[in-house]
Amino acid sequence: MTSSFHSKSLSSSSSCLYSAGADLGLLTFDLDDTLFPVGPVVMDANQGMAKEIHLILGIDDNDNDKMESTIAGVVQGMRDARAKATATKQPLSYSEQRKQGIRQQMELMVPASSPPMDQATVDRVFDAWLTERNHAAERRIFPGALEALETIVTNYPNACIAAVTNGRGNPLDMTKTLRPYFRFCISGEDDAVFPNRKPHAGIYEASLDAYYSKHQSSDETDATWIHVGDCLANDVGGSAKCGAKTIWYDAGGEENNENSAAARAKSGAKPVWSTAPPAEMKKRAALAEEGRKLVSARVTSLLELPDAISDILSATTTTTTTTTTTT
Q1: In principle, which of 17, 44, 137, 246 could form an S-S bond with 36, CB 3.0–4.6 Å?
Q2: What are phi and psi of 218, to 5 degrees?
Q3: Are 130 and 93 in contact (CB under 8 A)?
């Protein structure tokens, strides 16, 4: 049988193709600031990273000033790496930025006569950061997230739930919380995706390809793809242009949450964990305003997700029926 959503290989000017149906086939989620707060999660991960650096170098990790200095040094190293990459027009992944930052800071913390920091040590510190990132995400998962996912799975047992993220969080590694609900995760850091992060169509194309190749039901002939995310530019705009129905998670309402992606886009404020230059922040703000026009549904609490999904599917059914009757 032929499915109603489909895609094709992308060229530089092409985009995903998709046709909506009445049933929920694929539900994709952004992760950072959608299912957990990325700022506090990254801060916790940075603490884990600094502890690992201090353990390797034999430094007392009970000294908060030294911990903060180490973290600040790594972040500065990441900014330096990004600036060099921008100057040479070479794409650099977030993972590689962090590894270069770790290397730079660790080499500053040892005698100048020491040999360059070996890659195995850098990777060990990075892995400590990544492990703590996922653990922190589980500890800090947003209220209502698991309840909403449980309801969605109950209501749509044949739907495939997946993550589409620009970062390194992975629900499949969150065994105590998200893993039971998610089938796969596509990251902008994946070799097959980078540098085509959100809002580029390439990352959504990869998500659809993963769905078609591994998770599509053989009898699914009329299905809808819905994407949920907090960022109007990356999540709403990016996925909608590939044909998804979109749910904007406007946590608490942008008028009440100055730390939301939408509020930051309006004010031009940059989160402390970001290494993005001003020009990129300005571009994101413009894309956010475009994305605002492409919202299918808006929720301010994750507990509202099941109703939002139901409303989208009902509207899709009505539209499909009207079109069929007219033709």
Answers
A1: 137
A2: -65, -25
A3: no
List the structure tokens of 139. 């500890």
Contact 256, 238 (CB under 8 A): no
Structure tokens that stand for 133 in this block: 């990132």
In this structure, what DSSP letter does residue 32 have?
B
Place of tokens 């509207």: 315
> What is the pLDDT tens value at each position of the chain, 327 positions in all?
333 444 433 333 345 645 455 789 999 999 999 999 999 999 999 999 999 999 999 998 788 999 999 999 999 999 999 999 999 999 999 999 999 999 999 999 999 999 999 999 999 999 999 999 999 999 999 999 999 999 999 999 999 999 999 999 999 999 999 999 999 999 999 999 999 999 999 999 999 999 999 877 545 556 899 999 999 999 999 999 999 999 999 998 765 555 556 655 555 565 655 666 777 778 888 999 999 999 999 999 999 999 999 999 999 766 554 444 455
Q: How far apart are CA 265 and CA 248, in angstroms?
A: 14
DSSP 295-312: -SEEESSGGGHHHHHHHH
Give the side-chain half-sphere CA count within 13 A for 231: 22
The separation between the first and the last C-alpha atoms of the chain, rounded to the nearest angstrom, is: 22
